Amino acid sequence: MIEQIHTYFTIEMIYLWLNLGVLPFWFVLIFFPYSKICKIFTTSIFPILILSLTYCYIIYIVFQNGYDFLSNFKLYLSLEELLILFSDSSFLLVFWVHFLAINLFCGGWIVKDYQKFTISKTLMFFPLLITYLFGPLGIVIYWLIRIFYAKRISIYD
């Protein structure tokens, strides 16, 4: 059975499923943030658990193919080394899962936080969309909006 799974879930297929798989979570975060589905599935550990399992499976595939994990530390040496690492589709997919998980976690945090401050759902559409597409930029936009609703500037909470 594992061989059948391994045959079907190639690097390209995992990439396709990841991109399609996170869309329902973001759809719920943006359009139905107060729903029970959002609370149970989207802002919980559930999507991060799915992405973590996918991450582990990709690392398993990469390990089976004899990937040199120690060469990953070269990414700190130069931009050229990072470019060389990104030329490997396995490393690029591991990075992509990392990116999707962090952005989804941040989107869930934004939803929980703006509900705490009773910020308008309509106003949060833009920061959530930007967080989905560009991560940190959306968080900064949300933080700037949050300053006005919290009536204070706080570096940490």
Structure description:
With 157 residues, the chain is an all-alpha fold. It is globular. The protein has 8 helices and no strands. The model has no long low-confidence stretch (mean pLDDT 87). The protein has one domain.
Write the layout of secondary structure elements.
Elements: H1 2-8, H2 11-31, H3 36-42, H4 46-64, H5 79-86, H6 89-116, H7 125-134, H8 136-150
Helix pairs in contact: 2-3, 2-4, 2-6, 2-7, 4-6, 6-7, 6-8, 7-8
Core attributes:
157 residues; mainly alpha
N-to-C SSE series?
HHHHHHHH
Helical stretch tally = 8
Strand fraction: under 5%
Number of E strands: 0
Based on CA inertia axes, which overall geometry fits? globular
Terminal residue distance = 47 Å
Radius of gyration: 18 Å
Poorly predicted regions are none
Q: What is the SS-derived class?
A: mainly alpha
Integer count of domains? 1
Sheet with most strands: none
Task: Name the average pLDDT.
Answer: 87
Q: Give the helix level as a range of percent.
A: over 70%
